[in-house]
Amino acid sequence: MSEWTTEIEAKWQKRWYDARINEAERDSRPKFMIIFAYPGLTGYLHVGHMRGYTYVDAIGRFMRMTGHNVMFPVGTHATGNGAISLARRVERGDSKTIEYLKNNGCTDEDLEKLKDPLSVVSFFNDVYIQQYWKRFGFLSDWRRFTSTVHPGYSKFIQWQFRKLHDKGMLFQKPYFAPACIECGPVAVDPSETDLSKGGNAETTEYTLLKFKCEDYFLVAATVRPETVYGQTNFWVNPDVEYVKVKINDEIWVISPQSFEKMKLQKDGMELVGTVPGRELIGKMATAPVIHRDIPVLPAKFCKPEVGTGLVTSVPSDAPDDWISIHILKKNDEMIREYGLNPEMVKSIKAIPIIDTKGYGPLPAAELIEKMGITEAGDPRLDEAKKLIYKDGFHTGVMNLNCGPFAGMKVEEAKEKMKQMMLDSGEADVFYDLSEEVICRCGLPVFIKKVPDQWFIDYANPEVTEQTKEHCKGMHILPADYYNNVQGVLDWFRERACVRQGNWLGTRFPYDDKWIIEAISDSTLYPVYYIISKYYFEGVINEDEMTEEFFDYVLLGKGNIETVAKNTRVDLDTLHNIREDVLYWYPLDLNLGGKEHMTVHFPAFLMNHAAILPKDMWPRGIFVNWYVTGKLGKISKSKGGAEPIPDAAGKFGVDALRLYYAHIAVPFADVAWDEDAIVTYEARMERILRTIDSLKELNGTDLKDIDAWLISRMNTRIDTIRDCMYEYDIRGMANEVYFEALNDMRWYMRRGGSNKKTAQKALDIWVRMMAPITPHIAEEVWESLGHKDFVSIADYPEYDENDSDFGAEISEEYLESVIDDIKEILKVIDNQNAKNAEEDPAAAPKVPGTIYIYTTPMWKMKVQALAKEMLGNMRLPALLRPAAVAREMRRSGAEDDSIIETAFDAGRKAASRMLTIPSFTKAVMANNELKKRGKESADFARKLAEEFNRKSDAEIAKATLDLNEYEYLKEAESFLASELGCDVKVYSADDSDAPDPQKKARASAPKRPAIYIDLV
């Protein structure tokens, strides 16, 4: 099939783009503007990216078919060091990079070009468009493509920063920022825009404690300065060669790794010597604050790359310290090896310093004993440390051993004690990353002091509150993110927005030594897509894109004649751009991966609120989760997936699109699973075979099953539209490719053969497929005789005239009877298997005849009374909240009351219940039912309990008028065919019906009794 699909993919993509159905111009239709977060240009994309991108195209296609004028622009994010790093690796002939590029189809001629960063950008711009987005059939408006290194884009970003400056949201101050030793400052965040490793690292602030020892200071790094009152000894690693560094008038002893980091943060640090860790053991050092001499002892858990490689010991509250002291006291050989005084070592006792809720005076000892930890290398020590630190910080109170801080909460004492030591000169501050971070260029990232860093003030209270209020009315998915975004905005604070170094990007308008960094130039950009068409087509150039130009087209400021004169942009062009902006903006939906939830999306929202008028603020955010490989998230830097063109050629684009749409909800990670993709490819083949069978039908007689199929498709239309209001693409895919397929096959199994019915159902079904599997949909659409594109046909609409609820419930009833019987047959098969295990000679029991007994009339009368008391409930579409909301929108409602009104309708419907006493009384008031006495009363009670558990829809189904006996009797031969044995249908009222097991009396409305005669 893949060869055939490759052919039709190329065929229809060419036709779409030749017909320019992907291009969007303003007109009288309602607009819908949708984007995905443009990808960074750091190499080839992978199959994981295509998940979210496919969602965007599918949503855009659906909206286009529902009467919307859809703009779906794309671009690339070249800002940063990604392209530069790749070019450098190519230039120096890095073998892994060359292999990676060649495996993705790069030629030797391409490699020569890729030694230049801007050529990298140009090359991958073309790859992304041609090999990925066009290859997947995206209906993107290619005229609006932009990259963040285009001069026009840079002019737009400079305008954006001038507006932020006018708003008072730009400022400078010293800053400790992550920086590559080669490339300069980088962003460390989950998006890993600048990184190849370590995007989840956090900046850790260490308090440096200075211990006087002879003519130098041993310097320990701690994250718990409040524990200094509990210091009993000092740890060094005997295997580490420490360095002596001069800073101001002091000599510090620290690890060489910490020196390399620290000199980036502290001016004037000078290496003056080294000292082996072994030589420090046995010395005495004066601890800060307590001013008590404590011994220096050996500990190999002191890692030179963590902190300073030196550790102060607080065994009362640090599990590592407690276990190490405990082991050393019992290790006479180690004491002798390092020449330690045994009595001194064994006299060391933990000093209680914090009263922590749930613990005694020595939390570390208590928890170690509880966890059964006996060795210093036990990995559970880290768990114990985190638990004690967390509990101590949140519930701890400093005890009487803590001098002036006694009685103070730990969370308060921590900062006060740190500040006291800083003021006295007994401490300093050092910043480090919580895990290893590697730049895109392959070199390590450390924390570096930037004395004059520029920031965007995202803590601006006015903008923050405006953004939070706006978010309440946005369509944000998933719901968890909608609920959490207010909190994200609350803690979203100042962000460094520019960098120095070797970067691609936009020059900062107030000091061109700076380059605007990758998050800060990717927030307001959706509105630039509207303008980029004019730049792309050469109607305007970057010299004309002045502050005055952007003020007019984006903010409506200025006189058009004056702006035209000053910018040299003609009046018609200015007018058209301004009208385009007013028509297309705000952005309706911005889709991005979950790494954007705490970084990109907050900045995206707040820049809109800070700069643009309120009616241009975004309407929707859609967050999608990852496609993972065997070792976790697939990424460009880590690899883990085959090239996108290879996957498309192997499985077919539509099978891949269906895989992305259906394999899981968008808000869950999924594993890249080729076996699963094969099943979607097979499903498309099965659908095509079913379509061929339907096309061959040529009957003219209309049967009940014809009304059922059209009504069923009508119901699916309604369900799909409900799904797509919430962008529930998986729900839509399930209806179209699974449930609708089942409907078609059931129709033919039930003897459906009407040509017009099949044609109408196919017309609906193929249009349903167009958003997710557009190539195959177009091919089938053409085979049905249509001359236009299904991609721009009207999406099927719910038609009340096609609805036949009775037909649907009747067939659903028949299916449920078959399912019930199959479950019983399964039990029989299991019993046969069990009997065979016990007695291999035992003959299996097989069904001879299946007897079905439909409900007696008196039970139908009880149900009729229930229906009457509940107000003759039926299943109006408007009882479903999503349908209510949709109908209100159709009538023009747009305010926040829509959803509340919809769900209020559902609540009112759910408030109707049958009370057992009143219902039983009504039943017993009927003379005929009263004669049955307790039997009637018992059934009335059971029915009331059952109905009170059901929704309106379920009750409507249960009470729909249906002559069950006649319906099943007519289907006897079909039932026999489906079940593979003789089937007999009787009414429970038939006294002559064979009923050896007295099953008939158990029958109830819509629940016939079943007896299987085994032979």
3D architecture notes:
This protein is α/β, with parallel strands linked by helices and 1015 residues long. Among the domains are: 204-433, Isoleucyl-tRNA Synthetase, domain 2 (Alpha-Beta Complex); 672-792, Isoleucyl-tRNA Synthetase, Domain 1, CATH 1.10.730; 808-873 and 912-1014, no CATH class. Helices cover 47% and strands 15% of the residues. It contains 39 helices and 33 strands. The strands form 10 sheets. A 6-stranded mixed beta sheet has the order 13-11-12-9-8-19. Strands 2-1-26-27-22 form a 5-stranded parallel beta sheet. A 4-stranded antiparallel beta sheet has the order 6-5-21-23. A hairpin with a 2-residue loop joins β8 and β9 (216-222). α16 (461-471) runs antiparallel to α17 and α27 (729-749) runs antiparallel to α28 (755-769). It is globular, with a radius of gyration of 37 Å. Residues 872-882, 888-900 and 906-911 have low confidence and may be disordered.
Major sheet: 6 strands, mixed
Low-confidence stretches: 872-882, 888-900, 906-911
CATH class of the domain at 204-433: Alpha Beta
**How would you write the strand order of the largest sheet?**
13-11-12-9-8-19
General form: globular
Nearest-angstrom radius of gyration? 37 Å
Percent in strands: 15-25%
Q: How many strand elements?
A: 33
What is the CATH topology descriptor of the domain at 204-433? Isoleucyl-tRNA Synthetase, domain 2
CATH-derived architecture of the domain at 204-433: Alpha-Beta Complex
For the record, give the distance between the C-alpha atoms at the N and C termini, rounded to a whole number.
Answer: 47 Å
Indicate the mean pLDDT. Answer: 92
Give me the secondary-structure category.
alpha/beta
| Helical segment count | 39
Could you give me the name of the CATH homologous superfamily of the domain at 204-433? Answer: Valyl/Leucyl/Isoleucyl-tRNA synthetase, editing domain
